[in-house]
């Protein structure tokens, strides 16, 4: 005898839709960046922080610990990532003057060049796949919802000291 599964709740359906969209969007964005700019999405995210973060703009580098937090990567995973980017000539490791043990990362001219190329591709891809299909008010509404979800996750994460 065949049993029908109960229909998913609205929350289960929301979660399934979110994860499918997020995974698919990252996959398509990664493939597009690789094909059109020769850079992976994870590499793009690192370079983006090295260009756009307030720390990078004031000191021309970002501390490894801060980069790890921003990217939600373990220190060992980040070290692997930075080594890979350094081999490509896109970043360089630097010492932090105020902290002998501290390590930082700065973007090279070649890294800035690849980032600028990738940034326009990334922006166009997100517009084509996400924002171009939504009204301005839907984009604003979705942005507000994601901010609230992020804040909730961040509070939960920090309160439980997972890091």
Structure description:
One of its GO terms (biological process) is response to stress. Residues 11-151 form the HTH marR-type domain. One of its GO terms (molecular function) is DNA-binding transcription factor activity. This is MarR family transcriptional regulator. It comes from Rothia terrae. It is globular, with a radius of gyration of 19 Å. The mean pLDDT is 89. Strands 1-3-2 form a 3-stranded antiparallel sheet. The chain has helices at 10-37, 41-52, 54-59, 64-71, 75-87, 109-129, 136-159, and strands spanning 62-63, 91-96, 99-107. The protein is mainly alpha-helical and 163 residues long. The protein starts with 9 loop residues before the first helix and ends with a helix. The chain folds into 2 domains: 32-129, Arc Repressor Mutant, subunit A; 132-163. Helix 1 (10-37) packs across helix 6 (109-129) and helix 2 (41-52) packs across helix 6.
Keywords summarizing the entry:
10% strand, MarR family transcriptional regulator, Arc Repressor Mutant, subunit A, WH_DNA-bd_sf, DNA-binding transcription factor activity, 163 residues, MarR/SlyA-like, 2 domains
Topology, pairings included?
Elements lengths: L9 H28 L3 H12 L1 H6 L2 E2 H8 L3 H13 L3 E6 L2 E9 L1 H21 L6 H24 L4
Antiparallel strand pairs: 1-3, 2-3
Helix pairs in contact: 1-6, 2-6
GO molecular function: DNA-binding transcription factor activity
Organism: Rothia terrae
Pfam families: MarR_2 (PF12802)
Please name the fourth-level CATH homologous superfamily of the largest domain: Winged helix-like DNA-binding domain superfamily/Winged helix DNA-binding domain
Note the main sheet.
3 strands, antiparallel
- The CATH topology of the largest domain turns out to be Arc Repressor Mutant, subunit A
Count the helices. How many?
A: 7
Instruction: Output mean pLDDT.
Output: 89
| Helix/strand order, N-terminal first | HHHEHHEEHH
Instruction: Please tally the β strands and state the result.
Output: 3
Q: From the alpha-carbon coordinates, what is the Rg to the nearest angstrom?
A: 19 Å
Structural domain tally? 2
Can you give the helix content as a percent range? Answer: 55-70%
State the distance separating the first and last CA atoms. 48 Å
- Give the spatial strand order of the biggest sheet: 1-3-2
From the helix content, strand content and strand pairing, which structural class follows? mainly alpha
Instruction: State the shape.
Output: globular
CATH architectural type of the largest domain: Orthogonal Bundle
Pfam families: MarR_2
Domain HTH marR-type: 11-151
InterPro entries: HTH_MarR-typ (IPR000835), MarR/SlyA-like (IPR039422), WH-like_DNA-bd_sf (IPR036388), WH_DNA-bd_sf (IPR036390)
GO molecular function: DNA-binding transcription factor activity
């Amino acid at each position: 005898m065949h049993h029908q599964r109960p229909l998913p709740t609205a929350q289960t359906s929301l979660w399934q839709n979110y994860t499918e969209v997020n995974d698919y969007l990252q996959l398509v964005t990664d493939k597009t960046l690789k094909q059109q700019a020769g850079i992976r999405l994870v590499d793009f995210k690192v370079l983006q922080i090295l260009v756009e973060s307030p720390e990078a703009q004031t000191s021309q580098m970002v501390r490894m610990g801060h980069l790890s937090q921003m990217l939600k990567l373990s220190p060992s995973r980040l070290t692997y990532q930075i080594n890979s980017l350094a081999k490509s000539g896109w970043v360089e490791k630097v010492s932090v003057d105020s902290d002998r043990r501290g390590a930082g990362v700065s973007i090279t001219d070649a890294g800035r060049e690849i980032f600028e190329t990738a940034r326009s591709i990334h922006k166009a891809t997100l517009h084509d796949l996400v924002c171009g299909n939504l009204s301005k008010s839907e984009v604003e509404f979705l942005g507000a919802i994601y901010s609230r979800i992020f804040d909730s996750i961040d509070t939960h994460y920090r309160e439980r000291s997972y890091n």
